[in-house]
Amino acid sequence: MRKSKLLAVAMSVMCAAALMTGCGSNGNAGSDTGSFSGGSASQPISVVSREDGSGTRGAFVELTGVEEKDADGNKVDNTTSNAIISNSTEIMMTTVSGDEYAIGYSSTGSLNDTVKALNVEGVEPTAANIKDGKYSLSRPFNIATKGTPGKLAQDFIDYIMSKDGQKVVEDNGYIASVDNAKAFKTAGESGKLVVAGSSSVTPVMEKLAEAYKKVNTKAEIEIQESDSTTGMTAAADGTCDIGMASRELEDSEKDKGLTSQAIALDGIAVIVNTQNDRTDISTDMVKKIFTGEVTDWNDVTE
Length: 302
Hints:
Strands 1, 4, 5, 6, 8, 9, 10, 11, 12 and 13 form a ten-stranded mixed beta sheet that branches. Strands 2-3 form a two-stranded antiparallel sheet. It has two domains: 46-138 and 269-299, D-Maltodextrin-Binding Protein, domain 2 (3-Layer(aba) Sandwich); 139-266, Periplasmic binding protein-like II (D-Maltodextrin-Binding Protein, domain 2, 3-Layer(aba) Sandwich), CATH 3.40.190.10. A hairpin with a 5-residue loop joins strand 2 (67-69) and strand 3. By secondary structure, it is α/β, with parallel strands linked by helices. 33% of the residues lie in helices and 24% in strands. The protein has helices spanning 2-21, 55-64, 89-97, 127-131, 151-160, 163-171, 202-215, 228-237, 251-254, 283-290; strands at residues 46-50, 67-69, 75-77, 84-86, 102-107, 116-117, 119-120, 138-146, 175-176, 191-198, 219-226, 242-245, 258-272, 280-281. It has ten helices and 14 strands.
């Protein structure tokens, strides 16, 4: 009996302490911001962007209005100088997953459970919404060659654009660029191909190369991951057979004799840390964050 009374007194003291310190709450009570604990303390935003030359960055700043034209008509990327720069899709994901207050962007096809993708204008970045045009942040994945491709390069390109290759594209979370594609039959060409460029295109290109080599065992394919601009430069100067870009080609790149083909359609997801309770964001707010106009999560509205 005495033990029961002592236990009851102890429980009462613990509950009282919890009420006084707020330990019994979930940290979100009374929150109207939709992110983190909802407290009044400053929650500075860690803006994470890709490097210059990244096709994902180029498409992202254009689609969100972070890039604008100056008085002379020149494109100006207004990404805040305080942004943390990541040099690949993998580094972007790692950086955002390791910083509770981070926000960045990534190919939807590269998303995993280490980060959280936000709905943009209330639309979820799914393959169906991207294909239907409902999700506004989307861009093509392109390959580019200079002049007439070699026989092996053309055989691999034919595979990518075939029913078989486009199924690989879709199986890996991207959207096929070719409707009613035909089945593939290899010409059996032998040799080595070098494919270089975008880190966003690289994951699906690796899957395509792996599948192609099962059909044509005589082929060797080396994939060099960098960025879209480097890939286009390599294709133009002949140091690779096929360049990869996660954006449309620039006029200057076309002037060097490059021609492109869209192999897939991909979305760009706005990503945050998994501890962030926010689920939606507007395109205008994304612009304000990435240009440095809004710097604290407490000032973020949908």
